[in-house]
């Protein structure tokens, strides 16, 4: 039972989805900080308002609603970079190493592809001799001839 659970967790799809969700959550924090600290004060400036910090006062001195707080945004940006580095070095890199030991390649560069002239499918491997969809012979390429 535990072996099955381990195999489920180590499937590439589960880890890719988990990493995607983590990145999305961190990116949402970055976007929220940008909107709260940069966009909202610009919009509020049209209405009128003072604060202290790293940034510029767009309205009356001391109105926090019209303060362009660059420091808070930079803080969120630094958080995002550090968070992504932690995700990469503590999750992605060990997972790649573990899967490579099992003979599975994950997070690899995509293989070169080309389009089939007959059915116009654009995901035929560059080294393929026949189209996987319509079965037509593919024109030879220098890379395929060298193999």
Automatic annotation (TrEMBL):
Name of this chain's protein: Mechanosensitive ion channel protein MscL
Highest classification ranks of the organism: Bacteria, Bacillati, Actinomycetota, Actinomycetes, Kitasatosporales
Compartments where located: Membrane
Membrane topology: Multi-pass membrane protein
Keywords (A to Z) from UniProt: Membrane, Transmembrane, Transmembrane helix
Top-level taxonomic group: Bacteria
Biological source species: Streptomyces sannanensis
Transmembrane segments: 12-31, 73-93
């Amino acid at each position: 039972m535990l072996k099955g659970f381990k195999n489920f967790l180590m499937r590439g799809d589960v880890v890719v989805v988990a990493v995607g969700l983590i990145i999305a959550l961190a990116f949402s924090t970055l976007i929220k900080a940008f909107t709260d600290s940069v966009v909202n004060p610009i919009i509020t400036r049209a209405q009128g308002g003072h604060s202290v910090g790293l940034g510029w006062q767009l309205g009356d001195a001391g109105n926090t609603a019209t303060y362009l707080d660059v420091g808070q945004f930079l803080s969120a940006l630094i958080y995002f970079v550090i968070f992504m580095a932690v995700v990469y070095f503590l999750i992605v890199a060990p997972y790649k190493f573990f899967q490579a030991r099992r003979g599975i390649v994950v997070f690899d560069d995509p293989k070169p592809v080309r389009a089939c002239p007959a059915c116009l499918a654009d995901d035929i491997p560059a080294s393929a001799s026949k189209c996987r969809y319509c079965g037509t012979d593919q024109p030879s390429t220098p890379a395929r001839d060298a193999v």
